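Hi all, long-time lurker, first post. I run a small reading group and we've been trying to get comfortable going from sequence to structure in the token notation. Rather than ask abstract questions, I figured I'd post a concrete chain and ask someone more experienced to write out its structure so we can walk through it together at our next meeting. Sequence below, copied exactly:
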Amino acid sequence: MAHVDSDCIFCKIVAGEIPCAKVFESETCMAFLDIAPVNEGHALVLPKGHYPTLMDIPVEMGSDLLQALSVVGKAVMEATGADGLNLMQNNYEAAGQLVHHAHYHLIPRFSDDGLRLWEQTPYKDPDEMNRLAAKIVKLVK
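-- Answer (accepted) --
Happy to help. Here is the structure in token form:
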């Protein structure tokens, strides 16, 4: 059985101690509607075990999570009539993670919803990008 954190709200939801609007459940994953949605139909998909961030989720769970994200994503789009779907996953508070149990946001999007993603800016110096890429490559294990 996967680790459970008794202080974690998502672990309590998985255990049935806190109610949710569940939309999917498998042996390893669960999905439910977010109580404060960006758009109606905004769902959270998470591993049932307690893993604080994406980097803590065992690689072996990848297939189960991808299956859940695909199935729930398709259902959310169809149920809401969405024109698109954002998949978001935040790690650590600096990135906007509020609950320290790894989870993915499936956010239905509509052509006229007015939501904007963050702005992007190109590297000022292509050598800077290449230096950073080389540094990352050395750290990839």
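A couple of things your group might point at:
DSSP finds three helices and five strands in the chain.
Residues 15 and 63 are 23 Å apart (CA to CA).
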